[in-house]
Amino acid sequence: MNIPYAVVADVAGQQSDKIARSWSAAIELELLKGPGRTDIRHVLHKGPLRIQRPFYPEGECCHVYLLHPPGGMVPGDELQVAIDLGTGAEALLTTPSAGKAYKSDKQKTAQLQGITAHISSDACLEWLPQETIIFDGAEAELRNDFHLSGNAKLLAWDIVVLGRRASGESFDAGRCLQRFTILRDGRPLLNERTLWEGGSDMLRANWGMANRWVSGSLFATLEADRATLDVLREGLAAQPYFDKCQAEWGLSQRRDVFMARYLGNSPEHCRKGFEYLWGQLRPLLNGREACRPRIWNT
């Protein structure tokens, strides 16, 4: 597996001043099923992307915490995560804190964050990161590409926060492009592209964000029948943070993918709702009860 790296250069072929201000990073992980547990067999990193030592709070499944000490992306930054999950391996990956895309420069230099995962047959990946905050004026692109083989399983979510409302900052300029792709044996199960442009009508209109600034999507490669969807909806509606006046939730099944959507104003409520759904879906996905990563308690 090779991680693509990008270099920014000026017309004269000299490195531009963007290089000095940007800090690209990449990490490549290979996880294989070993005796009694999934082991990290290979790690290759470039720049400030690291992992802590793996944790095994539930036996075979490997919990991995992905660390990015700078905490956010400035113009020109590129963060690439590549994951290769071998046959029968089980892994849960999360992050300790929210990601950030800071305001870009006058040239509108892009900030890229991408994950590419290859999941072999009989393997299961859970990708459960914290939210990504898009600052006013950012030029962010968020890519999520998952390649499944055979009966591989996946549960993944992505939460995007537009602006910093707690600091009085809305999302009036810049853009955020989010891509989410799931393939099984090369056949597309999901291919989504969402573009948020700062100050656009889409952020205010009822057909768009309806003046809300948090968007969350959860996907799982399992089949939930109508009865299961009804139970999940009822359970979600009973949670103390569920407020249908302040947020909209949607649960659906399309082809072989379960989908959950959140549109509201609270990343915390979105995370809690997704965690509830994850806890309900996990036994159907990989036969395991929910086991919260310890870092979520800090």
Quick recap of the structure?
The chain has helices at residues 17-21, 201-204, 226-237, 267-286; strands at 25-34, 37-46, 50-51, 62-67, 78-85, 90-94, 99-101, 111-119, 124-128, 132-134, 139-148, 153-162, 175-184, 187-197, 214-220, 248-254, 257-264.
Describe the structure.
It is a single chain. The chain has 4 helices and 17 strands. It has 298 residues and is mainly beta. It has a domain at 17-210. It is globular.
Question: How is the topology of this model organized?
Answer:
Layout lengths: L16 H5 L3 E10 L2 E10 L3 E2 L10 E6 L10 E8 L4 E5 L4 E3 L9 E9 L4 E5 L3 E3 L4 E10 L4 E10 L12 E10 L2 E11 L3 H4 L9 E7 L5 H12 L10 E7 L2 E8 L2 H20 L12
Parallel strand pairs: 1-5, 4-6, 5-8, 6-9, 7-10, 8-11, 9-12, 10-12, 11-13
Antiparallel strand pairs: 1-2, 3-4, 12-15, 13-14, 15-17, 16-17
The number of strands is: 17
The N- to C-terminal Cα distance equals 33 Å
Identify the quaternary structure here. Answer: single chain
Q: Helix/strand/pairing class, anyone?
A: mainly beta
- Helix amount: 10-25%
Question: Helix count?
Answer: 4
Mass-distribution shape: globular
What pattern of helices and strands is seen along the backbone? HEEEEEEEEEEEEEEHEHEEH
Radius of gyration: 19 Å
Which stretches of 5+ consecutive residues score pLDDT under 50? Answer: 1-20
Largest beta sheet, briefly?
10 strands, mixed
Averaged pLDDT, please? 90
Strand portion: 35-45%
Keywords:
42% strand, ten-stranded mixed sheet, seven-stranded mixed sheet, 4 helices, 298 residues, mainly beta
